[in-house]
Write a structure and sequence with these properties.
InterPro entries: Haemolymph_juvenile_hormone-bd (IPR010562), To_sf (IPR038606). It holds the Pfam family JHBP. This is Protein takeout. This protein has 259 residues and is an alpha+beta fold. Helices cover 33% and strands 42% of the residues. It is built from five helices and ten strands. Strands 2, 3, 4, 5, 8 and 9 form a six-stranded antiparallel beta sheet that branches. The chain is elongated. About 8% of the residues have low confidence.
Protein backbone atom coordinates (compact mmCIF):
# COMPACT_ATOMS: atom_id res chain seq x y z
CA UNK A 1 0.00 0.00 0.00
CA UNK A 2 1.30 3.45 -0.90
CA UNK A 3 1.39 5.81 2.03
CA UNK A 4 0.04 9.27 1.17
CA UNK A 5 2.53 10.81 3.55
CA UNK A 6 5.43 9.28 1.67
CA UNK A 7 7.87 12.03 0.62
CA UNK A 8 8.13 10.55 -2.86
CA UNK A 9 4.34 10.43 -3.30
CA UNK A 10 4.00 13.97 -2.01
CA UNK A 11 6.62 15.10 -4.51
CA UNK A 12 4.75 13.40 -7.35
CA UNK A 13 1.48 14.98 -6.20
CA UNK A 14 3.12 18.42 -6.13
CA UNK A 15 4.51 17.93 -9.64
CA UNK A 16 1.16 16.76 -10.99
CA UNK A 17 -0.64 19.68 -9.30
CA UNK A 18 1.86 22.14 -10.74
CA UNK A 19 1.41 20.75 -14.24
CA UNK A 20 -2.38 20.78 -13.87
CA UNK A 21 -2.47 24.33 -12.56
CA UNK A 22 -0.15 25.40 -15.34
CA UNK A 23 -2.49 23.90 -17.92
CA UNK A 24 -5.49 25.53 -16.28
CA UNK A 25 -3.68 28.86 -16.35
CA UNK A 26 -2.67 28.49 -19.99
CA UNK A 27 -6.08 27.31 -21.15
CA UNK A 28 -8.29 29.30 -18.80
CA UNK A 29 -6.33 32.53 -18.63
CA UNK A 30 -4.98 32.86 -22.15
CA UNK A 31 -7.23 30.33 -23.86
CA UNK A 32 -4.57 29.11 -26.26
CA UNK A 33 -3.37 32.61 -27.09
CA UNK A 34 0.16 32.20 -25.81
CA UNK A 35 1.43 33.88 -28.99
CA UNK A 36 0.18 37.21 -27.62
CA UNK A 37 3.00 39.40 -26.40
CA UNK A 38 2.17 40.84 -22.98
CA UNK A 39 3.37 44.46 -22.95
CA UNK A 40 4.54 46.37 -19.89
CA UNK A 41 2.99 49.73 -19.07
CA UNK A 42 6.46 51.02 -18.21
CA UNK A 43 7.98 49.93 -21.54
CA UNK A 44 9.05 53.05 -23.49
CA UNK A 45 8.12 51.11 -26.64
CA UNK A 46 4.71 50.09 -25.29
CA UNK A 47 2.85 51.16 -28.43
CA UNK A 48 5.19 49.19 -30.70
CA UNK A 49 4.74 46.16 -28.46
CA UNK A 50 0.95 46.45 -28.58
CA UNK A 51 1.07 46.85 -32.35
CA UNK A 52 3.04 43.59 -32.64
CA UNK A 53 0.60 41.81 -30.34
CA UNK A 54 -2.48 42.98 -32.25
CA UNK A 55 -0.88 42.02 -35.57
CA UNK A 56 -0.04 38.57 -34.16
CA UNK A 57 -3.70 38.14 -33.21
CA UNK A 58 -4.83 39.28 -36.68
CA UNK A 59 -2.40 36.88 -38.37
CA UNK A 60 -3.64 33.90 -36.35
CA UNK A 61 -7.25 34.87 -36.99
CA UNK A 62 -6.81 34.40 -40.74
CA UNK A 63 -7.09 30.65 -40.18
CA UNK A 64 -9.69 30.99 -37.42
CA UNK A 65 -9.37 30.72 -33.66
CA UNK A 66 -11.79 28.00 -32.47
CA UNK A 67 -10.73 28.60 -28.84
CA UNK A 68 -12.49 31.96 -29.05
CA UNK A 69 -15.49 30.63 -30.92
CA UNK A 70 -14.23 31.59 -34.40
CA UNK A 71 -13.60 28.42 -36.43
CA UNK A 72 -13.45 30.78 -39.42
CA UNK A 73 -13.60 34.55 -39.70
CA UNK A 74 -14.61 35.06 -43.31
CA UNK A 75 -16.71 36.01 -45.04
CA UNK A 76 -17.90 39.07 -43.14
CA UNK A 77 -21.67 39.15 -43.64
CA UNK A 78 -23.87 42.27 -43.57
CA UNK A 79 -27.63 42.03 -43.88
CA UNK A 80 -28.28 45.05 -46.10
CA UNK A 81 -27.18 48.54 -47.16
CA UNK A 82 -29.02 51.39 -48.87
CA UNK A 83 -28.11 54.30 -51.12
CA UNK A 84 -30.25 57.13 -52.52
CA UNK A 85 -29.28 59.45 -55.38
CA UNK A 86 -31.48 62.42 -56.17
CA UNK A 87 -34.78 63.58 -54.72
CA UNK A 88 -38.35 63.16 -55.78
CA UNK A 89 -40.25 60.19 -57.15
CA UNK A 90 -37.67 59.52 -59.88
CA UNK A 91 -34.66 59.55 -57.54
CA UNK A 92 -32.51 56.44 -57.77
CA UNK A 93 -32.59 54.13 -54.76
CA UNK A 94 -30.75 50.84 -54.34
CA UNK A 95 -30.80 48.17 -51.67
CA UNK A 96 -27.93 45.66 -51.30
CA UNK A 97 -28.79 42.46 -49.46
CA UNK A 98 -26.93 39.42 -48.09
CA UNK A 99 -23.54 41.07 -48.50
CA UNK A 100 -20.53 38.73 -48.26
CA UNK A 101 -17.08 40.33 -48.00
CA UNK A 102 -13.70 38.59 -48.06
CA UNK A 103 -10.21 39.95 -47.53
CA UNK A 104 -10.76 41.78 -44.25
CA UNK A 105 -8.69 39.18 -42.37
CA UNK A 106 -5.59 40.31 -44.31
CA UNK A 107 -5.61 43.52 -42.30
CA UNK A 108 -2.44 44.86 -40.72
CA UNK A 109 -2.08 47.49 -38.01
CA UNK A 110 0.28 50.14 -39.38
CA UNK A 111 0.05 52.55 -36.47
CA UNK A 112 -1.12 52.36 -32.86
CA UNK A 113 -1.41 54.99 -30.16
CA UNK A 114 -2.31 54.13 -26.57
CA UNK A 115 -3.30 56.10 -23.49
CA UNK A 116 -3.50 54.00 -20.34
CA UNK A 117 -4.58 54.77 -16.80
CA UNK A 118 -5.74 52.66 -13.88
CA UNK A 119 -9.39 53.07 -14.82
CA UNK A 120 -9.35 53.51 -18.60
CA UNK A 121 -7.67 52.29 -21.78
CA UNK A 122 -7.74 54.30 -25.00
CA UNK A 123 -6.43 52.90 -28.28
CA UNK A 124 -6.25 54.50 -31.69
CA UNK A 125 -5.35 52.14 -34.54
CA UNK A 126 -4.71 52.63 -38.23
CA UNK A 127 -5.45 49.53 -40.32
CA UNK A 128 -4.43 48.67 -43.85
CA UNK A 129 -6.29 46.07 -45.93
CA UNK A 130 -4.90 45.32 -49.41
CA UNK A 131 -8.17 44.24 -51.02
CA UNK A 132 -11.76 43.47 -50.07
CA UNK A 133 -14.03 41.53 -52.43
CA UNK A 134 -17.78 41.81 -51.94
CA UNK A 135 -20.82 40.10 -53.46
CA UNK A 136 -24.47 40.84 -52.83
CA UNK A 137 -27.97 40.81 -54.24
CA UNK A 138 -29.35 44.20 -55.20
CA UNK A 139 -32.71 45.78 -55.95
CA UNK A 140 -33.15 49.29 -57.34
CA UNK A 141 -35.86 51.78 -58.35
CA UNK A 142 -35.89 55.12 -60.09
CA UNK A 143 -34.05 56.78 -62.95
CA UNK A 144 -30.30 56.76 -63.51
CA UNK A 145 -28.59 58.75 -66.29
CA UNK A 146 -31.93 59.11 -68.10
CA UNK A 147 -32.51 55.35 -67.97
CA UNK A 148 -35.31 53.77 -65.99
CA UNK A 149 -33.13 51.73 -63.59
CA UNK A 150 -35.69 49.74 -61.65
CA UNK A 151 -34.59 46.14 -61.41
CA UNK A 152 -32.65 43.54 -59.48
CA UNK A 153 -29.67 41.24 -59.88
CA UNK A 154 -26.20 40.45 -58.54
CA UNK A 155 -23.68 43.01 -57.36
CA UNK A 156 -19.89 42.58 -57.08
CA UNK A 157 -17.20 44.95 -55.91
CA UNK A 158 -13.42 45.01 -55.51
CA UNK A 159 -12.07 47.59 -53.07
CA UNK A 160 -8.30 48.05 -53.05
CA UNK A 161 -6.11 50.06 -50.72
CA UNK A 162 -8.53 50.18 -47.80
CA UNK A 163 -7.44 52.32 -44.82
CA UNK A 164 -9.36 52.43 -41.56
CA UNK A 165 -8.95 54.43 -38.37
CA UNK A 166 -10.45 52.96 -35.21
CA UNK A 167 -10.79 54.50 -31.76
CA UNK A 168 -11.44 52.21 -28.77
CA UNK A 169 -12.18 53.26 -25.20
CA UNK A 170 -12.49 50.54 -22.53
CA UNK A 171 -12.48 50.16 -18.77
CA UNK A 172 -10.76 47.39 -16.77
CA UNK A 173 -12.82 45.29 -14.36
CA UNK A 174 -12.16 42.28 -12.13
CA UNK A 175 -13.76 38.90 -12.64
CA UNK A 176 -12.83 35.80 -10.60
CA UNK A 177 -9.40 37.11 -9.78
CA UNK A 178 -8.57 38.24 -13.32
CA UNK A 179 -8.80 41.65 -14.95
CA UNK A 180 -10.67 42.10 -18.21
CA UNK A 181 -11.65 45.04 -20.38
CA UNK A 182 -15.20 46.25 -20.99
CA UNK A 183 -15.72 48.21 -24.18
CA UNK A 184 -17.14 51.69 -23.60
CA UNK A 185 -16.87 53.30 -27.03
CA UNK A 186 -15.81 52.38 -30.56
CA UNK A 187 -15.59 54.78 -33.49
CA UNK A 188 -14.25 54.23 -36.98
CA UNK A 189 -13.73 55.84 -40.36
CA UNK A 190 -12.32 54.43 -43.60
CA UNK A 191 -11.26 55.27 -47.13
CA UNK A 192 -10.75 53.22 -50.29
CA UNK A 193 -8.08 54.07 -52.89
CA UNK A 194 -9.48 52.14 -55.88
CA UNK A 195 -13.00 50.87 -56.52
CA UNK A 196 -14.09 48.48 -59.28
CA UNK A 197 -17.65 47.21 -59.17
CA UNK A 198 -20.56 46.18 -61.31
CA UNK A 199 -23.85 44.35 -61.64
CA UNK A 200 -24.71 41.21 -63.56
CA UNK A 201 -27.53 38.76 -64.06
CA UNK A 202 -29.99 41.65 -64.19
CA UNK A 203 -33.50 40.25 -64.04
CA UNK A 204 -35.35 39.95 -67.35
CA UNK A 205 -32.02 40.01 -69.17
CA UNK A 206 -32.12 43.78 -69.63
CA UNK A 207 -28.70 44.29 -71.22
CA UNK A 208 -29.29 48.03 -71.78
CA UNK A 209 -29.99 48.55 -68.09
CA UNK A 210 -27.02 46.41 -67.08
CA UNK A 211 -24.65 48.33 -69.36
CA UNK A 212 -25.98 51.69 -68.13
CA UNK A 213 -25.62 50.71 -64.48
CA UNK A 214 -22.08 49.40 -64.95
CA UNK A 215 -21.03 52.53 -66.82
CA UNK A 216 -22.44 54.77 -64.12
CA UNK A 217 -21.14 52.97 -61.03
CA UNK A 218 -17.62 52.53 -62.40
CA UNK A 219 -17.48 56.20 -63.40
CA UNK A 220 -18.77 57.33 -60.00
CA UNK A 221 -17.35 54.74 -57.58
CA UNK A 222 -16.11 57.20 -54.95
CA UNK A 223 -19.35 59.19 -55.05
CA UNK A 224 -21.40 56.03 -54.59
CA UNK A 225 -19.17 54.97 -51.70
CA UNK A 226 -19.70 58.37 -50.12
CA UNK A 227 -23.49 57.89 -50.32
CA UNK A 228 -23.20 54.36 -48.94
CA UNK A 229 -20.67 55.24 -46.25
CA UNK A 230 -22.94 56.33 -43.34
CA UNK A 231 -24.98 53.12 -43.51
CA UNK A 232 -21.89 50.97 -44.13
CA UNK A 233 -19.96 52.56 -41.28
CA UNK A 234 -22.85 52.00 -38.88
CA UNK A 235 -23.04 48.31 -39.86
CA UNK A 236 -19.26 47.85 -39.57
CA UNK A 237 -19.22 49.47 -36.13
CA UNK A 238 -21.86 46.95 -35.02
CA UNK A 239 -19.82 44.02 -36.36
CA UNK A 240 -16.59 45.36 -34.87
CA UNK A 241 -18.21 46.13 -31.50
CA UNK A 242 -19.47 42.54 -31.19
CA UNK A 243 -16.05 41.21 -32.15
CA UNK A 244 -14.08 43.43 -29.73
CA UNK A 245 -16.50 42.75 -26.86
CA UNK A 246 -16.09 39.01 -27.38
CA UNK A 247 -12.28 39.29 -27.43
CA UNK A 248 -12.20 41.50 -24.33
CA UNK A 249 -14.52 39.17 -22.42
CA UNK A 250 -12.34 36.11 -23.09
CA UNK A 251 -8.77 37.41 -23.14
CA UNK A 252 -7.63 38.85 -19.79
CA UNK A 253 -6.19 42.34 -19.65
CA UNK A 254 -2.89 40.87 -18.40
CA UNK A 255 -2.55 39.00 -21.68
CA UNK A 256 -2.24 42.40 -23.35
CA UNK A 257 -0.82 44.73 -20.74
CA UNK A 258 0.97 44.01 -17.47
CA UNK A 259 2.59 46.06 -14.74
Amino acid sequence: MIQINSPRVLAYVCIICSIFLGLVDAIGKYRGLEFLESCSKTDPDLESCLERSVNALAEHFRNGLPQLGYPEVEPIILDELHIALGDGPNGYKAQFMDIHAKGVSSLKVTNLRARLSDDEVQLQLVLSIPKIRANAKYRSTGTLILVQASGAGDYWGNYEGVKAKIFIRAKPYDNQGLRFLRLQQLKMDFSVRDINMGVENVHDGNTILQAALNLFINSNGQELLREMKPDLRRKLVQVMTNFIEKIFSQVPYDAWIKG
